[in-house]
TrEMBL record:
Residues 15-461 form the Major facilitator superfamily (MFS) profile domain. It comes from Microlunatus parietis. CDD domains: MFS_MMR_MDR_like. The chain crosses the membrane at residues 12-37, 49-68, 80-103, 109-127, 139-160, 166-184, 204-222, 228-250, 271-295, 307-327, 334-354, 360-385, 397-423, 435-457. Keywords: Membrane, Transmembrane, Transmembrane helix, Transport. It is found in: Cell membrane. GO terms for molecular function: transmembrane transporter activity. GO terms for cellular component: plasma membrane. This is MFS family permease. InterPro entries: MFS (IPR011701), MFS_dom (IPR020846), MFS_trans_sf (IPR036259). It comes from the Bacteria. The lineage of its organism: Bacteria, Bacillati, Actinomycetota, Actinomycetes, Propionibacteriales.
């Protein structure tokens, strides 16, 4: 037994480190660029259209995730993860040399493909290396690190841009990506397939339909802060609706679907997916406009505004492991509901406190509550999705989670952006009023997440994990 333990522990440690590092790269790149959009637009003559640098990355991630998850389940994770890391790193190198905005957008598309492959394999890699309580702890470490990485991205981006310029936000990926590639080659298992059964034919029709449907839907959501719809918006909405409807029909007809619709027949799984969608919507949108409040109402610089998100980072890092531990004592729905309730309290308190004259230190406790709630709920809700699913479909579940997270980020940012735009103006008071409305809307989403988890995720529907 001791020999077996000494043989198995190093791969566990290496895989967990790999998943955390690569996930950090992907998550940070989803938000770090936003700080540098004015500089990118000025240098590459993009102006306001520089937002496409963010849009192309998220759209591609949302569209490719299902394909990557399905193929990973069938062809094995090692070759795809290695290819994903390599593509992400090379695309980052291309972005550092971008001479035009179009070139940079294309590099971001390539980054999005690599990012989708990396993200969709994170949970399956952990699920394949851990069992029972150890699995929940591993997912807890991964979830806390991933969420925290996204929230500290504005601070990192501001510091890099202030010091080296906007290209540095892509250059930082090069040494980290190279190190991750070497680590992956060392620790990933060499098995060709993720499952024991013969490799079935991939659902290419379903993959294409989900790419078109999710891609166009995400584009619409990222444009949803605009007051009027154009003819192009209407066409995109029709394309997304038709593609997704045909996709659903195809999934019921093929023998090995990209997304198993019967998974959603399990109330616990559906509840976890809704909670993930709502959480990403309120977290991404709320963070974007809170940083705007720091910059425009409190008149802080990019680096200072980003650093004020640090309390959320600290709280999530601590409470992520607490949430996983609580699963050994409390039902999953109660743990997840507690986390979202704490997040709602923090958001509501921030809504009351945001004014142009509020000292920054007054906001620390609500920020800690926001981050602490997210940390408690984040890992357990993903553990629920994994634990109610067959092992050979874990990659499919991871694809669903990543797709809904990307779509939720787009919906949340667009919807909360529309709330903010309703107040207009650029004065510190107008910005504070707009952010207050955004935080109240985010609070409502958090409350909805609490109700969803308490109703759909309960002990009768989710087996409590046993320590192993």
């Amino acid at each position: 037994m001791p020999a077996e333990k000494s043989r198995r522990v190093p791969p566990f440690t290496g895989v967990l480190l790999l998943v955390m590092v690569t996930t950090g790269l992907v998550v940070v790149d989803a938000t770090i660029v936003t700080i540098g959009l004015p500089q990118i637009g000025a240098e590459l003559a993009g102006g306001s259209s520089a937002e496409s640098v963010v849009v192309t990355y998220l759209i591609t991630m949302g569209a490719v995730t299902q394909v990557a998850g399905s193929v990973s389940d069938r062809w094995g994770r090692r070759p795809l993860v290695l290819a994903g890391i390599a593509l992400f790193t090379l695309a980052s190198l291309a972005a550092t040399q971008a001479p035009t905005l179009v070139f940079l957008d294309l590099a971001r598309v390539a980054q999005g493909v690599g990012a989708a492959v990396i993200m969709v394999n994170g949970i399956p890699l952990l699920a394949g290396r851990y069992d029972g309580e150890e699995r929940n702890l591993a997912i807890g470490a991964w979830g806390s690190f991933a969420t925290a990485a996204g929230l500290i991205a504005p601070a990192v981006g501001g510091l890099l841009i202030d010091t080296f310029g906007w290209r540095a936000v892509f250059a930082i990926n090069l040494p980290l990506g190279a190190a991750a590639l070497l680590l992956a080659a060392r620790v990933l298992p060499r098995s060709r397939r993720a499952g024991p059964e013969p490799r079935p034919r991939p659902d290419w029709a379903g993959s294409l339909l989900i790419m078109v449907g999710l891609g166009t839907a995400t584009m619409i959501m990222l444009r949803s802060d605009r007051a009027a719809w154009t003819g192009a918006d209407t066409v995109l909405a029709a394309v997304a609706a038709v593609a997704l409807m045909i996709f659903i029909i195809v999934q019921f007809r093929v023998g090995s679907p990209t997304l198993e619709p019967r998974l959603f027949a399990k109330p616990a799984f559906s509840g976890a997916m809704v909670a993930i969608f709502l959480s990403r919507a309120l977290t991404t949108g709320g963070a974007v406009y809170l940083v705007l409040y720091f910059a425009e109402a409190l008149r802080l610089g990019p680096t200072e505004a980003g650093l004020l998100m640090t309390p959320i980072f600290v709280a999530q890092m601590i409470t992520g492991m607490v949430g996983s531990k609580l699963l050994s004592y409390w039902p999953p729905g109660l743990v997840i509901g507690l986390g979202y309730a704490l997040k709602a309290v923090g958001l509501a308190a921030l809504a009351v406190l945001v004014t142009p004259d509020t000292p920054w230190w007054v906001l620390l406790v609500p920020l800690l509550a926001w981050g602490g709630g997210g940390g408690i709920a984040g890992a357990p809700v993903m553990a629920v999705a994994v634990n109610v699913t067959d092992p050979d479909r874990v990659g499919m579940v991871a694809g669903t989670v990543s797709s809904l997270a990307s779509l939720g980020a787009g919906v949340g940012t667009g919807m909360l952006g529309a709330v903010f735009a309703g107040y207009g103006g650029s004065s510190p008071q107008a910005v504070a009023d707009g952010v207050r409305a955004v935080l109240l809307a985010a609070t409502a989403l958090a409350v909805l997440a609490v109700l969803t988890t308490l109703v759909l995720i309960n002990p009768r529907r989710v087996p409590r994990p046993t320590p192993q």
